[in-house]
Structure formats: C-alpha cells, structure tokens
C-alpha cells in the first residue's frame, strides 16, 4: 500500500471562513485523523502551505476519488443486537455525503485510509458486487432473509450516478424474487422507481429514508452532500404513493442540534406517507469523537461545549459508548426525554400504521432465475 494513501492534508484556498475558522467547504470532516492501524502520522507544515499560497498553487484540490476494488464476498451477517437487520451489503465503502456523525467512518481505517476526509473523498467501488450477490443467493445452502443495502454506507450516494451498482443489484433481487431493504438519504432512489414497484408487487422491498432535521441550514453543515430535506420528504411521498413501504430514520438525534425537532420530524414524515419511524441517540465511537469535536468547534463554537457535554450525558459521561443494547439508545435524563418524545410521536402520528414484513417465501422457487414448477 502506498504510505501516502491515508493522507489528504487540509488545503489553503478551497476553504471558506465560518465563525472565524478555516472551514473546508462541501465536506463534513475538517481533518484527516491518522489511521490508528498505521505506524505513520502526517501533518501539514505551515511553510509548505505558505509556499503554495505564494506560488498560487493548491495544496489539495478537494476532489473525490473513485477506487475500484474486487472483494471476495458482498453479503455480511449482522451480529449486533443494536441493528435491526440480519444481513447487509454495501456496494461502496466510504461515502461522499460526508455526514459528520457517521459510525461507518471507522471502517475506512480497515482499508488503510483515514476516517476523516478520506472517508468522504476516497470511495471504494465494489465492481463485482452484482456477481457476488447472485452467487450468494443462488447457493443451495442460502435461505432467503432480507438483505439490506446500505448497512454501512449509502448505496445511493453520488457514485451510484456513475457506476449504477445498486441498480444492478436490485435487478438481481427482482430476478430471484428475493427480499431487499434499502437505507438512504438520497432522492436518487427515485431513478429506480419502476424496479421498486416491480419488487413491491410481491412484497419484496422496504425502504428506509433518513431525515435528520427540517432545517436546511443544519443539514448543509451536518450532512453537506446529501439531498435537501424537501427532496427527501418528497421521496417518501412518491414512494408511498406507489405502494412502496417507507420507514423514516430519524437518526441520529443529537442533543442541542436536532433534539428539539423530534415531534416536527415525526409529523413531517407521517404527513408524507411513512408507515413507521426509528431513531438512535448519537454516539461518537472510535475516531468519530475527535472528528466531530473538531467539526462542531468550527461550525458552532458558541454551543460546542454544551452539545458535547449533553452527548456525553447520554452515554455515561463519555462520547465513545460501545455497550451493546445501550449505545444506540443512550441513558440518563436527556435520553429519557428523547425516548418519551418518540413514544408521544408514535401515538400521535403513527397510530394504526404498520410496516409490513417482507416476503421470504418466493425465493426458493426462483433460485434458477425462473419459477420452478416442481
């Protein structure tokens, strides 16, 4: 591996002034934290930055790189009791959406990259994903269970526009009548509406749309390259109107940033047709604690300490909570208030609504790609 793969320095003249700090426009993370598995660490020297400034050069162009990879497997068994899925698959590793709180940032270190800017700018493209999926679900030993696209990173992130791996995988699920779930915060999913409608005819599809805030100002700094809130709500409405069940992911709830929006968020997604919603209380595990702390002190310096203290209050006094069964729910008075609001939201806006269980009965008869008569 190239020793410099894990390093993309902060740059000089592609930033904007935000709250009197240098801020990298269009990105969530504002640093490239050193990969914990690497024996090397890097820093950007001031004399080099000054040289670039004097020469009119950019220390970094802030460009996204798409890197092809060919993994041996694509379907992952999920063993965590905190995650409501049994199997997942991710066509892409890393995510250009740049959500600052994303737990998946830590996994980028396994590939030799930083969980900071590398996670948003070095996107690994699993070019053989469709073939691996087809091989998996055609196996004689495989019994149909819902496989969720985007268990880690968004399957409809900007890379999907070019590579269409998610679309190809949906065609595999349809061909073999296999149930599939999707988690996304990108309206690009509507490109595949006809595919989703075909899957829904046999109750083979469930979609989870993430809606974290109703404030565009908050969205732009919290999730910089995601679809607007207006488009996300519109996506929920269009999918619902076409008979595709939607669960809204009101996650994560971050005390002091979006915790005051709980009831309004629930009402908005219900008004647009969502059948249910789920939520988590933010946790800043692994490298995310440092990355998030650096980010909030640059974006919200007046409230940074308050927000960080409230997050810690929900997790036993620490930003990094890894306790199974508690880490996604939180504990303490603030977490209880969030849970109580969610219960009220469900009683008020989701009474008698039920998200359907997906159909696992058809696949066995279609393992050859067409219905077996005997």
From TrEMBL:
Pfam families: Radical_SAM. The keyword Iron applies. NCBIfam families: rSAM_PA0069. This is DNA repair photolyase. Keywords: Iron, Iron-sulfur, Lyase, Metal-binding. SUPFAM superfamilies: Radical SAM enzymes (SSF102114). Residues 81-327 form the Radical SAM core domain. GO terms for molecular function: iron-sulfur cluster binding; lyase activity; metal ion binding. The lineage of its organism: Bacteria, Pseudomonadati, Bacteroidota, Flavobacteriia, Flavobacteriales.
